[in-house]
Specification:
The chain contains six helices and five strands, in the order βββααββαααα. With about 160 residues, it is mainly alpha-helical. The chain has a domain of about 100 residues: Multidrug-efflux Transporter Regulator, Chain: A, Domain 2. The N terminus is likely disordered.
């Protein structure tokens, strides 16, 4: 039996608007195991029934959508958590919040896009890794001269 009021954030969750993990999973398209992971990581919260079963407020759907969209554009969970932590008392992001946060990520996203474009455009040639196994490497990285610039695939690095 569901407890009448479950403590959740600033107020109480209204029992008629609670979702089970399975319902939240179905509505959000996110696996239950991922929801539990997000909860362990402090990205979402749930209340508990008297039988210790998780229940989520409906607004958690928007928070999960925010997390998934942020992940799709390549943001690590640490950055997503930091962004959510800027909201008062764990509030679900609004359109205004999304606009503000997405503007703050633009420079990093532009850099990632440039990196991916460079990868796409040079994927079939030398990447400057130092292996010297491709014919084009002798032209682009003769005698591994790029080793002096640092480790890894130097030609693919966008500065």
């Amino acid at each position: 039996m569901l407890a009448n009021n479950l403590n959740y954030g600033l107020g109480q969750m209204v029992t008629s608007k609670l979702l089970t993990p399975g319902e939240l999973s179905e509505r959000s398209g996110v696996a239950v195991s991922a929801l539990h992971f997000y909860e362990r990581e402090g990205l979402i919260e749930s209340g508990r029934t008297s039988g210790n079963q998780r229940r989520y407020a409906r607004h958690v759907l928007r928070r999960v959508a925010f997390i998934r969209t942020s992940q799709r554009v390549g943001l690590p969970l640490a950055e997503i958590r930091a962004a959510l932590d800027t909201l008062p008392a764990g509030r679900t992001p609004t359109k205004k919040d999304w606009s503000r946060l997405s503007r703050s990520w633009r420079t990093d996203l532009d850099h990632r896009i440039a990196q991916m474009e460079k990868l796409r455009d040079t994927l079939d040639g030398c990447i400057g890794c130092g292996c010297l196994s491709l014919r084009s490497c002798s032209l682009r990285n003769e005698q591994d001269h790029l080793a002096g610039e640092g480790s890894g695939a130097r030609i693919l690095t966008v500065e």
